[in-house]
Specification:
Blueprint lengths: L1 H6 L14 H12 L2 H4 L1 H8 L1 H33 L6 H10 L9 H38 L7 H7 L1 H7 L5 H26 L18 H12 L2 H9 L13 H24 L16 H33 L8 H22 L3 H28 L9 H36 L1
Helix pairs in contact: 2-10, 2-12, 2-13, 4-5, 4-11, 4-13, 5-6, 5-11, 5-13, 5-16, 6-7, 6-16, 7-8, 7-14, 7-15, 7-16, 8-15, 9-15, 10-13, 10-14, 11-16, 11-17, 14-15, 16-17
């Protein structure tokens, strides 16, 4: 029986309705991470200083990439033990606990529920951020060319509600990959335009610090983690691949995607900080001059990029909802229920964005709290549990994962503390 379990190959037994190619999978991973997080890179560097920012970005990129690696590898091992072709994020957590040491086995269901809750909170937060960022970009353009309207960001959130509802009706990752490729194209064009403005005049290190105020390092950490992490999309993307064995390894989908993410983030963060210094806003596009046509294009492109990325992030939210409700819905009503629930889900996310339209602070909360749990703490715990009987020489796997978990907890506590203090300060200024 044990021999059969070892010989079971999940990839050979996996049937995917509409499988994705390696290129589409790479596009989905890159787009799941890059977006509003990329454009917040210069602001993150202003919190850390350019030296700490560069070293920190590369270090966090390696840690985040490693956490994705161990999650996918653990999921594959769980699939072999369970003799199942594929497992989702929460199912992997449950299986790792169920097959781990005896003292944690009773908590397998709790681990699954906790992972689902963390995933849901994370991606609802991401959808809120995307709503505010699109609305901010549109508002800047309208305020410049139609000043008589003078609408607040909240109204623009309502205006984009219907287009977002329509776009989120797309059900398959195969078709969402097309939107991801478009979004990546728009994002790359925005990236190039930002560099046009950055290098339009000579850069100077004058007034720019290599190491910033240590009290602002948690804000840097939160923003970078938010930009690097797309772990909630990893399992759906890997599970939907035509050749899932190409996801890990070198070269692989993960290596190519993480290399691109670290490169784009570090270059824009570094040079953007040298250009704009400490006057940066939540997205670098908001610092560009509104009267120049390249800047106008950048604001349009980033709004389009985030708009086309929205359904990929919402896919995670809806996938969790569908998992728990599908069994209670009759086949005759599944189609109409699917449309209605997707629409209500988008309305809920947009509603939260309207209630708290503080772009920089929402990014930091999602990065420090939710992504630290989802992308750092849980993968470290899950691999340790699954490999409890084989932790390597001197139990190096356990010690390595303890360091990852401590890093995640540090980012969580410090990032949330700094961000909450920032929000309180902003609200006090508004009330004065």
């Amino acid at each position: 029986m044990e021999k059969d379990k070892q010989e079971y190959n999940p990839y050979e037994n996996r049937t995917v309705e509409k499988p994705s190619s390696d290129i589409r999978a790479t596009a989905n991973i890159i787009k799941a991470s890059l977006g509003s997080g990329l454009l917040a890179g210069p602001l993150a560097f202003s919190n850390s200083g350019w030296g700490v920012g560069l070293i920190g970005t590369f270090a966090i990129g390696i840690i985040c990439g490693h956490c994705v690696h161990i999650l996918v590898k653990t999921s594959y091992g769980c699939c072999k033990l369970e003799r199942k072709p594929l497992l989702g994020y929460a199912e992997t957590c449950k299986s790792a606990f169920a097959n781990g040491p005896k003292f944690i086995r009773p908590y397998a269901s709790v681990a699954s529920i906790f992972a689902e809750l963390a995933m849901l909170c994370t991606y609802v937060g991401v959808c809120c951020i995307y709503t505010v960022l699109i609305s901010d970009s549109i508002k800047q353009l309208i305020d410049r060319y139609m000043p008589s309207l003078n609408l607040s960001v909240e109204y623009y959130c309502l205006i984009i509600l219907i287009p977002l509802c329509l776009l989120c009706q797309v059900r398959y990752l195969k078709w969402l990959a097309i939107f991801s490729i478009l979004a990546n194209l728009f994002l790359f064009l925005t990236y190039l335009i930002c560099f046009y403005y950055i290098f339009r005049s000579p850069l100077s290190f004058e007034g720019k610090t290599a190491a910033g105020d240590p009290s602002r390092f948690p804000a840097f950490l939160s923003t970078v983690i938010f930009a690097m992490e797309g772990i909630g999309v990893v399992m759906p993307v890997e599970n939907a691949m035509k050749k899932p064995q190409h996801f890990l390894g070198c070269p692989s989908v993960l290596v190519v995607a993480m290399t691109a993410i670290v490169f784009f983030y570090s270059t824009l963060g570094f040079f953007g900080y040298l250009r704009y210094g400490d006057v940066l806003r939540g997205s670098i596009t908001l610092n560009l001059p509104i009267e120049d046509w390249p800047a106008i294009c950048a604001k349009i492109f980033i709004a389009m990029s985030i708009f086309f990325t929205y359904p990929l992030q919402f896919y995670v939210v809806y996938d969790i909802f569908k998992k728990y409700t599908d069994v209670y819905i009759k086949d005759d009503y599944k189609k109409i229920t699917d449309i209605a629930s997707r629409t209500l889900g988008v309305c809920f996310c947009v509603g939260i964005g309207i209630a708290l339209p503080l772009l920089e602070q929402i990014i930091n909360i999602v990065g420090s709290c939710f992504y630290s749990i989802l992308g750092l703490i849980i993968p470290g715990i899950v691999e340790t549990a699954f490999r409890w009987g084989d932790l390597g020489t001197l139990k190096w796997v356990m010690w390595k994962n303890i360091l990852i978990i401590l890093f995640g907890l540090t980012a969580l506590v410090s990032g949330c503390t700094v961000t909450i203090m920032d929000i309180i300060q902003i609200l006090r200024k508004k009330n004065e």
